[in-house]
Write a structure and sequence with these properties.
This protein is α/β, with parallel strands linked by helices and 335 residues long. Helices cover 45% and strands 17% of the residues. The protein has two domains: 1-125 and 294-335, Isopropylmalate Dehydrogenase (3-Layer(aba) Sandwich); 129-287, Isopropylmalate Dehydrogenase. The longest helix has 27 residues, at 233-259.
C-alpha cells in the first residue's frame, strides 16, 4: 500500500473483545483497501482470531501486551495501571505519530484521561467535546457535547459548533453543515444567559464552515432541518440517553407486537421489507463511533457493547476523519 491510513486499535476494550475487534477489522479491511491497523493487545488471544479470519500480514502489525484497562476501573486507576496497557499504547502511538487515528471500545473515562495526558489540545480550544452521530430523516446528525463537560461557557459552545461542523464536513463533504443550539424553545428569547450569549455570537459572526440556524428543540433533533446540534455536556448527555431509551423501547415493543399473535406474524412477513428499513434506521451499530473533539489527533470511542459490525463502523469513522482532514479543518476555522 502507498501511504496507507494507519489506525491504532485497542483490541482489549469492551464486551467480547478481542474477538469482536478482530472481526470488525476483518469486515472493515475488505471494504477499505488503503488502511493499515496497529493492533495492541494480548497476542495469545488475538493471533488465533487473526488466523481464523485470514487477515493479510501486510495489513496489520500486532503489538503484544498482556496488561489491560478493566471496565470497572476509574479513569485515575486506569492511568495508574501504567504505560503498557493496550489502551495507553494505542493512544501513545498517536502521540508518536505512528498512527493517524485511534479507536477503543473500552472504558470511556480512561480513554478520555489517557488521551488528554498524551495528546495536546488544538490551540485556542479550552475544552474537548464528545460528539456522536444520530440518525435523522435526511442523513445523520452530529451532536455534541455528550458528557465530556457538564458546565460550558459561550465560547465553548461556539468552539463546539466549529468542531462539530468540521466533523460533519469530514464525514459528508458534499453537504452543507447547518448548526443549531439545543434549547427549550425555538424563540430567540428562550433559554438561559449562556445559550442566549452563544446565539448572539454565532448570529453576529458568520463562519464559512457552517450555516447557523438558531435554536432547535429536543423533539426536532431528528427532523433533518439541521445536522450539527450543539449543547453543554449535561444537556447533551440527557438528550442522548433519552433518545437511546426511546429507540430501544420502540423496537422492543414493535417486535413483541409482531410476534405475539398469528395476525402480527403474518403482518411482519407481508411488511418484511419496510420493517427491515425501519430496523436499519434505528440500528445503533450503523452509526457507532463517538469522537473526542478538541485534541490534535482523532480519538474515537466505540460503544463497549457493540458487535463486530458496530466496531467496523467505528473504524470507518476513523478513516473518514483522516480522509476529510478533520483536524486541519478545525485548526483552520477556530478563533
Amino acid at each position: 500500500m502507498n501511504n496507507p491510513i494507519i489506525i491504532a486499535v485497542d483490541a482489549m476494550g469492551g464486551d467480547n473483545s478481542p474477538k469482536k475487534v478482530i472481526e470488525g477489522i476483518s469486515l472493515h479491511s475488505k471494504l477499505s483497501k488503503d488502511v493499515y491497523y496497529k493492533i495492541f493487545g494480548n497476542e495469545d488471544l488475538i493471533q488465533p482470531i487473526i488466523n481464523k479470519y485470514k487477515l493479510s500480514r501486510d495489513r496489520f502489525k500486532l503489538i503484544h501486551t498482556d496488561k489491560v484497562v478493566e471496565g470497572e476501573d476509574t479513569a485515575l486507576s486506569a492511568a495508574k495501571r501504567g504505560k503498557d496497557t493496550s489502551l495507553w499504547l494505542a493512544v501513545e502511538s498517536l502521540k508518536k505519530n505512528e498512527a493517524q487515528a485511534m479507536v477503543s471500545a473500552g472504558n470511556t473515562g480512561a480513554l478520555f484521561l489517557i488521551s488528554k495526558l498524551n495528546l495536546k489540545m488544538i490551540e485556542n480550544i479550552d475544552k474537548p467535546a464528545l460528539s456522536a452521530l444520530w440518525p435523522s430523516k435526511k442523513n445523520m446528525n452530529v451532536v455534541l457535547d455528550l458528557g465530556a463537560n457538564i458546565e460550558c461557557s459561550s465560547k465553548n459552545l461556539v468552539d463546539f459548533s466549529i468542531m462539530g461542523s468540521a466533523l460533519f464536513k469530514a464525514l459528508y463533504p458534499n453537504d452543507l453543515a447547518k448548526v443549531a443550539l439545543l434549547n427549550i424553545g425555538s424563540e430567540e428569547l428562550k433559554g438561559n444567559a449562556m445559550i442566549k450569549d452563544t446565539f448572539q455570537l454565532l448570529n453576529d459572526k458568520k463562519n464559512s464552515l457552517f450555516e447557523f440556524n438558531g435554536y432547535i428543540e429536543g423533539n426536532n433533533i431528528m427532523e433533518g432541518h439541521v445536522n450539527v446540534i450543539v449543547a453543554d455536556g449535561f444537556t447533551g448527555n440527557i438528550a442522548l440517553k433519552t433518545a437511546e431509551g426511546t429507540s430501544n423501547f420502540i423496537t422492543t415493543e414493535l417486535k413483541k407486537a409482531l410476534s405475539s399473535s398469528l395476525i402480527g406474524k403474518i403482518s411482519s412477513i407481508l411488511n418484511y421489507s419496510n420493517l427491515k428499513k425501519f430496523k436499519n434506521k434505528l440500528d445503533p451499530r450503523l452509526y457507532n463511533g463517538a469522537i473526542l473533539l478538541g485534541l490534535d489527533k482523532p480519538v474515537i470511542k466505540s460503544h463497549g457493547a457493540t458487535d463486530s459490525i458496530g466496531f467496523a463502523n467505528s473504524l470507518k469513522v476513523c478513516e473518514k476523519t483522516i480522509k476529510g482532514k478533520l483536524i486541519d479543518q478545525i485548526k483552520k476555522n477556530i478563533n
